[in-house]
Amino acid sequence: MTYTIIGGGAVGLVLASYLATQGSVTIVVKRQQQAQLLQQHGITCHSEWGQSIAHVHATTTIPNDPAQHIFICTKAYALQTITEQLAHIEAATITACQNGLAHLALLEHPSSCAAVVEFGAYKESDTIVHHTGVGRVVIGALSGGQVPFIASTQQLPIIYDESIQDVMWRKALLNCCINPLTAIMQVKNGELITNPSLWQIVMRMHAELEEALPKQMKNVPLKAVYELCEKTAQNRSSMHVDIAHGRQTEIEEIVGAVLAFTAHPLPTLRVLYDQIIAKR
Ligand SMILES: NC(=O)C1=CN([C@@H]2O[C@H](COP(=O)(O)OP(=O)(O)OC[C@H]3O[C@@H](n4cnc5c(N)ncnc54)[C@H](OP(=O)(O)O)[C@@H]3O)[C@@H](O)[C@H]2O)C=CC1
Ligand SMILES: CC(C)(CO)C(=O)C(=O)O
User: Fold this and answer.
1) More confident residue, 166 or 110
2) For the CA of 133, the nearest ligand
3) Edge-to-edge strand order for the sheet containing 158-160?
4) Same domain for 135 and 233?
5) Which of these is catalytic: 171, 188, 215, 231?
6) Which one of 142, 162, 182 terminates a domain?
């Protein structure tokens, strides 16, 4: 198998280091300096199984190869630029690994797929990554075409799901209930369930989402929000971390996409959305 990973961030480095055990991997990064470091040192991945070093080919140019399986591992707001770059690239499949819903509209390749990443990762440096919290990668075709093959392992369980859009919606709605509030309050996920005032806000937001999006919210009972906060109690949400570091957030692609999908006002979620936008 020939795999191309676009984006040398947390998810891209973890995925590239596992895929290197299954085939030939090219990682496409934005900065020449990162490409050079990756060529020289490979990717060091720390996980509960120990430390591994994966040797990959690193470049700043997307290869053109009809046999390659491309995984886009940038943040959702970089997707527009990447899809423009991909317009003239041949590939067997192109899989977008972003949170949120924006890529539903962007990927027009007949073999476009989406992956919902349920593991956790953070990047220590351009060549060192930590695979924190084992979790699945759920992959499915967006337009009924083929999907990339990845062998499922204990470290990286891979699930194929024909209803990938439902999986994406579920994750986006869970992110809506957790990410903006934790980012505004600068609290860890667990505080949403231990602080009664914050849980009241989550309950109100969840009830409004159920009224606006009954079909999509069938997969997202309040219990699921509670359990995710409990499971990730000690974690800071990705939006919380982005705001804390003064970085761009994925508010548009996660919350903005949900707000734009329905004519219902969703007042609680909208206020949080406006507050995150105001921080720009
Ligand atoms: N990290 C996590 O635990 C999880 C993340 N996700 C989702 O996965 C996606 C990726 O997240 P994550 O890996 O954490 O993000 P990061 O910010 O760590 O990585 C994004 C990478 O994309 C690179 N990039 C941006 N534009 C380009 C480009 N034009 N060409 C090549 N590379 C580019 C950035 O390069 P540079 O650094 O040089 O700017 C950066 O290295 C997000 O949608 C996130 O929500 C989902 C589940 C868990
Ligand atoms: C941990 C979780 C599920 C919180 O919504 C997440 O995906 C994130 O932080 O982006």
Assistant:
1) 166
2) 1
3) 57-59, 24-28, 2-6, 68-72, 93-96, 112-117, 137-141, 158-160
4) no
5) 171
6) 162
For ligand 2, the distance from its centroid to the CA atom of residue 229, given in whole angstroms, is 9
Question: 40 with 141, same domain?
Answer: yes
Verify whether residue 123 is a known catalytic residue: no
6 Cβ below 6 A of ligand 1: yes
Shared-domain flag, residues 142 and 193: no
117 lines ligand 1 (CB under 6 A): yes
Q: What is the pLDDT of residue 96?
A: 96
Same domain (yes/no): 148, 246: no
> Tokens 């806000």 appear where?
201
Of 231, 217, 232, 218, whose CA–CA distance to 269 is shortest?
A: 217
pLDDT in tens, 167-201: 999 999 999 999 999 999 999 999 999 999 999 99
Q: How far is the CA of 122 from the centre of ligand 2 (A)?
A: 13
- Looking at the fold, whether 80 and 145 belong to one and the same domain comes out as yes
Q: Is 10 in the pocket of ligand 1 (CB under 6 A)?
A: yes
Residue 230 lies in domain: 167-278
User: How crowded is residue 217: how many other Cβ atoms within 10 Å of its Cβ?
Assistant: 20
- Tell whether 110 and 214 lie within a shared domain: no
